[in-house]
User: Fold this.
Amino acid sequence: MLQTAKSNYHNEAVLLGFSDLKRLKSERPLIFDRGQGIFIFDETGKDYIEAVSCFYCVSLGFSDGDLVEAATRQLRSLPMYSSAIHRTVPAVMELSERLAALAPVKNPRIYFATTGSEANDYLIKFMWYGNGFAGEPQRRKMLSRKSSYHGSTIATAALGGGSELHESFGIPMGISLQVSHPSWPNAALPGEDEDAFTSRLADELEKVILDAGPQTVGAMIAEPVSVSSGMFAPPDSYFPKITTVLRKYGIQLFIDEVVTGFGRSGRMWASELMGLEPDCVTCAKGIAGAYMPIAGIIMGEEFNRRLDLGNEAKGWFAHGGTHHAHAVSAAVAVEVLNIFERRDILGHVQRVIPHWNRMLDSFLDHPLVVGTRKFGLLGAIEVAAPGEARAGSASSLKVGGLSKAIYEAGLETGVIVRPLAGCLVLSPPLIITESEIDELGRRLRSACDRVLADMSSSRRAEFAEAR
Ligand SMILES: Cc1ncc(COP(=O)(O)O)c(C=O)c1O
Assistant:
């Protein structure tokens, strides 16, 4: 029997990700049972602004009637048929064609997986396959940036930064080579300008490649702007310089647009906005507004040529999955593309970005705020308490201190933000209006005020002096 809201669930039976298992056993988690637009409602009826679109994913807001309708239509006509063994459904054919026309990769071929983790994981698997048949079986290693996040599978956890993802799970690190994240300007050396900073990072990349043996490195994976690393938009010269190094050694560039794709930057892809030239791109989250799980691996010409070599040798491509390119997910993703056109979502995002930026900057006078970072309809508010050093870069794991305190105060004032070490990341549904941005700002300021008020008066005085 379904339990009604507020009934006493048996907490010990649930294991939630990225949670304290001990706390879960003794304390009821926050349970949401309704959403509308940018708002989410918990089981007591309290509303919260979802300022991170859940996990950066509910890009068109909650309970969008057109998306629910598209899912329902597909559920009624054909709820499920696996896309494999030379069989598929119309929604997958339509989605492939329309996404290929929009993709930031020339003449792409697209494989649909279920999650962003799977997309990145399979991309590595496909690379190993293609490189093997293209006479480069030793090109298996993956470059990534420290403190990045590309997923939770074994291979993608190895790419992401942080010992929490590696040591405690015994994740094999054999394939992973990590370089510094372009956390400009916080990670700059004293006196270093943008050009010197990006040159140093390009030199570091080259050294890592040479130490590993260039012929053993397959690709580098990077987000255009990494939310998990604290949302530092790289200086303009960063990607051109690292792309030059990669090309020099025949290493491919994979761009992870799991968060930044589908309008977050104000363009369909951040790659497009930033002029990147990826060999392959992965996307997920916003592709179906996160109403259904689906992810895309968008592969470029050279990558596809290599896959075809494997196919010629073996007679088929031996990879698939029951729920890959799920019919309902694909139907919802097609409707997302329709909505982007019908409601001019990109135009809306571009129109509200200036107001969004003003709201972020309005926090600069708050005693707990030391800076803001902005990129499209993303933002990070950098926070520091007295005596705390400004974070050189951010990490999404094991967040404590001030950002966690503000996150928790936000739950009281009715706004959900993503606390990272040293900052709060915001990524609201793309449909947010200017008045909703103002309301978000009010609720978040009130959370910051509560945390400040809770600090001892001596600590506040010390802080004021430090300013
Ligand atoms: C940049 C990036 N890549 C990949 C993933 C993994 O996606 P998923 O959680 O759908 O597996 C995430 C998840 O947050 C992400 O932020």
Q: What stands out?
A: The longest helix spans residues 434-454. The two ends are 58 Å apart (CA to CA). The CA atoms of residues 153 and 416 lie 26 Å apart. The mean pLDDT is 93.
